[in-house]
Amino acid sequence: MPLHDVPVDSRPREKLLARGAAALSDTELLALLLRTGTAGRGVMQMAGELLQGFGGIAGLLHATAGSLQAFKGLGGSAKRAQLLAVLELARRALAQQLAERPLMDSPQAARDYIQLQLGRRPHEVFAVMFLDAQHRLLTLEEMFRGTLSQTSVYPREVVQRALQLGAAAVVLAHNHPSGAVQPSRADEALTKSLQAALALVDVRVLDHVVVGPGQSLSMAEQGLL
Length: 225
Known about the structure:
It holds the Pfam family UPF0758_N. This is DNA repair protein RadC. Residues 103-225 form the MPN domain. Keywords: Hydrolase, Metal-binding, Metalloprotease, Protease, Zinc. With 225 residues, this protein is of the alpha+beta class. It folds into 2 domains: 3-90; 102-218, Cytidine Deaminase, domain 2 (3-Layer(aba) Sandwich). It has 9 helices and 5 strands. The chain has a 5-stranded mixed sheet, with helices on both faces. A hairpin with a 2-residue loop joins strand 4 (204-212) and strand 5. Helix 2 packs across helix 3.
């Protein structure tokens, strides 16, 4: 039913103001963001279909502009822009958190940040989180794309960038679009190669994080570093 026909006690905005955001369901929060539905399809229904289509909030946060445009009711630019802005705010909030305190104080935040950046990419991406001497985030940079191997990821370029930024440590990261996050033998060999190259300039490799849609794996926690 249209949002204005929903009883006042159940309307997302009134419910949020009266009880706090935590009292709202994912569908209600998304309906507040969308504001309106489409002809014959109320905003609550649209929000529910959007969550179902993208696999919940986590999936929606990894949506791209193209995938949102393909969803019925998001062909216009305004709603897509709102959703993409929420995604970017989430990324910036995590980046700020990692820049303000040592990475090893919040390893889950680091994995969440990498997940937001790389988790839903349709192709493989290799990225590096460059850290200062206190292990706070300087920047995360995507450095290589395509099938990853020792021949497609160049340790010299990673070393050069670490020196340019004055990094003291790094966290390596890449995605598996297939969804399986178990590192391959090639991933392990690549990690060893980068460790050796970076050690020559006194830059530590703290971890290598592998992400896929909705999940992540720390090679350090698996004893693979």
